[in-house]
Each structure stands twice: as C-alpha cells, then as structure tokens.
Amino acid sequence: MWLIHTGTGNLREFVVDERPKEYAILSHCWTNNEVSHKQYQSQTHRDGYGFNKIQNCCRLASDQGIEWLWVDTCCIDKTSSSELAEAINSMFSWYEGASVCFVLLPDYDSTASTCENNLTRFSTNQSRSRQTKLHDSKWFTRGWTLQELLAPTKILFYDRNCVLFGCKRCLGPLLSAITKIDLEYLTKRKPLHFASIACRMSWASARSTTRIEDTAYALLGIFNVNMSLRYGEGIRAFARLQELILQRSDDDSLFAWRSTVRQDRYGLFAEHPVDFAFSANVVPIRRRSFPHTVTGRGVELFAP
C-alpha cells in the first residue's frame, strides 16, 4: 500500500500489516488531468488540477495531525496487474480503515463551512435549491464512490473552493435521501450484510463506471468477496460477481431483479445493477435447502 507523507509529499510503500494506524483517504471523481503513480514519482505534472488536488488533501490531513494520505490516482501503480488487483480487492477495507475520508466535489458550491450550520441549513425550505445542486453532483452517480460513502466512519465533504460544508453524520438524512440508502447503513448502526443482496444491488442501480467491468469490481467490498480482474470480459464480470455472491451467501434475493430492457431470452443473473432498481425494499430471502452450486454448465439450483 503506497501512502503520501503529508509533510514532505513523498510516496512510501507499506506492507498492509505495517501501515500507519492513522491515514487520510480521498474520494473524488477523476478528471482528464490526474497524476499517475509514475508521474508523481518522477515529479512531472506538478502544475495541474490533479496535483493541486493532492496538495490540498495533504494540507487538510496535516491540519488534522494526520501524517499519511492515500489517493487512488497516484498511490496505485496501474502498470502492475498484481498491484492493481490487490488494490481493487482491498479498497473497501482501505477506506474503512482510514481515520478520515475527504470528499471533494468540484461541481458543488457551498456558502457554509461547518457541520452545525449545514444541519440547520439543509433542514429549511430555503435550502431546497442547495439540496438539488448537491444531488446533481457527479460524485453521487459514479460506481466507485458508493463504497467510498459506505466504508469510512468519518467523512468530510468539501466544495469546489475546498470549503468544508458538512460531514457524513450531520448530512446523514440528506445523503440518505439522495442515495436512497437507509440512514442506519450510512451511519454504520447496522452492518451492511443486514441489508439483502437485492437491496445492496439497488444502491448501485443508478451509478455508472467508465469501464464496464468496473461495475462489478466497484462492488466487491460491499458484498465481501474477492475476484480476479479480467478487463476485456465486459458484462461477464458482473455475472462472475453474482456467481461468487451465490457461493458465499444463503440469501436468494440475488434473484429478485427484473430487466429494464425487453429481451427474447433472460438468464438467471442480472446483466447490470440497474436491474435491481426496484429491489430496495426486498428483505433477505434465506435459503433453507441445499446450497446452490455453480458448475461449468451453469448454476444448479435446489428448490425447497
């Protein structure tokens, strides 16, 4: 795991078991001007938006007395397939283990700078236009940011001017309204596995990723599974994710979906999380018979 020293700006690699107990982590939407691991190491691209974003996060972490920072753009060497696979399979736990997660929203402008102000501001009728603007932020539409919202305990939200306008605790009701995720899961009063598989899938139904395969890879931590990366396989990645979930879980709500596209033939598994768009209220459907089996010919089901 690579981390940035918030004082010097230098990258350092840690064995996961030996990583610092305290580190900050960034959640954001990528732009065309991000700094890669190689570029950061070679100290190039130091005058663009991507590098300024990293510097701002170093400052925010340092102000809170946190010495280390993780940023997905430059703390993963994506030229190494093994390092990329480890990072994607570990990402939920990395966000979960962070002391604080900074969410940067460059497409949102706020006039308040404290959680207390926002708790009042978002509870009034006059705030509805601001709620709408926050709802329109791209951050709420991306596949990867779902786990980045759910995993950390402490999240601080910053607007386009890097002004703090709220935290996950004080903005909880608003975040729940925007994401359609029960507040108890956002605040960790209930562990995620209490929500049915279908319900968790519904949280991702309105989100998208640049690469088709990332639709599945971005959900690994939410379903507590590990998975090999096979970029180029397309929608097969989401089918593989469902196969792994089927093997690990006794919750048959995995099959509680309906296609949003009219087809002549349907398979057992959904093709995309959007097929679970109407499954938010589905409760776990516990299997009492023999476990289902994934074989080379398909899935072997045992009816009760």
TrEMBL record:
Residues 23-148 form the Heterokaryon incompatibility domain. InterPro entries: DUF8212 (IPR058525), HET (IPR010730). Residues 236-262 form the DUF8212 domain. PANTHER family: HET DOMAIN-CONTAINING PROTEIN. This is Uncharacterized protein. It comes from Pseudocercospora fijiensis (strain CIRAD86). The lineage of its organism: Eukaryota, Fungi, Dikarya, Ascomycota, Pezizomycotina.
